[in-house]
Design goal:
The chain has four helices and 13 strands. The chain is an alpha+beta fold and 229 residues long. It has one domain (3-24, 37-72, 88-222). Keywords: Signal.
Amino acid sequence: MNKTRVLLNTCLLSLLTVLAGCANGRGQSLPYDSWYLNFFSPDYMEAWVETSEVVDIKNRGFSNVLGGVVSSGYPRALSKGIPTEFKGNPKGWPKKPGGGGGKHVIGADLPRVIYVNWQSLVEPQTYEVYIEITEEMRQIMLKPEKAYCNLDGKWITDYRRFLTIGLAPGGIAKVWAQSPCLIPIEVTRVVGKVDPRGPYLGRSGGRYRPLSDISKAYVEKFGVPYGSW
């Protein structure tokens, strides 16, 4: 077991009193209330996050931060039937990565390690990855920049306090630091490992969450673009 995993597991198994202290926001050194974590996957490359965990720079553990359906451009939420034309393109990453259904990591300082366990539904396969956030990455999150924000039509001082993680087949996890009003900056790319426990942390007898008919049809026609992420 590597040092990163030992650190993460130690923090996440801390006494409840310690975890309660983590969540109250005391001792933060951030210029904003909280940072934000969210996930997305390439078009049609559907994924499901089992769990995500965080260890901050004060070695405090935050368990079950975010999980569930991972957002993607296609298939659309209300799509029905197999389209005659597939408009999405899963190859590569978008210039401005998006995410949906994220969560503010309340009470945490800047992250040191982020752990993600997820199902890649098109393969299907279960992966886990430890993403080490370096000091250089944290400085990007702390750097204030002037930006014209289209959201309210004003010049503001903003921070890249959103960490957006793209999850792709093959266990690929790519991370950007961004905000609604600043250009995203790619900060790292990590290749995860297969989790031998399988889906649902080994509690489903090997049964995966079902892939949508649209994504299944896309993969049957075009395949999975390994190597493009």
